[in-house]
Amino acid sequence: MKNLFAIFYQFFQKLVHRSSASTTRSHVASTKSENKISYSEDLIPSLKNDHQQLIALYIQIDQLIQTQNFDDIQTALATLKTEFNRHIMQENVSFYCYLEQQFAENENHLETVKEYRKEMNGISHAFVMFIKKWQTQVISHENLTIFQAEYAAIGEVLTQRIHSEENQLYPLYQPSL
Fold first, then answer.
1. What does the DSSP assignment read for the chain?
2. Which listed residue, 71, 77, 111, 177, has the most CB atoms within 10 A of its CB?
3. Where does the record place the Hemerythrin-like domain (predicted)?
């Protein structure tokens, strides 16, 4: 299990490094435009609620794995992918753009925000690739062990990321002075 997690971690790191240059340039350009992102007091509670819903879906799929309800796993994976993508889109548009705009003059905070965003883009890509792989393959008794191992690794990475966002990154989201 630790080896699988290490492989996933290396995979995420490679993805992050590949896409970082173009992602960073496009986001910096968007924060310099005249379209300012406004603060919303509802954003962080909404993002945290999304996290709870994603965790609930993850647990639901884990229960389906335990009962070997393969058809429902496929359906639940599609729902998880949709909810995950919606959450990521909201974070990118409303959260990260706002923080980059707010910290344009504070290099330390801006770099922290950019690193989180870059890392999340890599995690997101790997997550989507995992979902696509298992939506095109039939999950069965023959490959259940492989699916379970990959699913557990994805879950561990996402759990660590949620914890990190909520405790370290979300507190940076404050109204303009």
1. -HHHHHHHHHHHHHHHHHHHHHHHHHHHHHHTSS-PPPP-TTHHHHHHHHHHHHHHHHHHHHHHHHTT-HHHHHHHHHHHHHHHHHHHHHIIIIIIHHHHHHTTT-HHHHHHHHHHHHHHHHHHHHHHHHHHHHHHS---TTTHHHHHHHHHHHHHHHHHHHHHIIIIIGGG-----
2. 77
3. 44-172
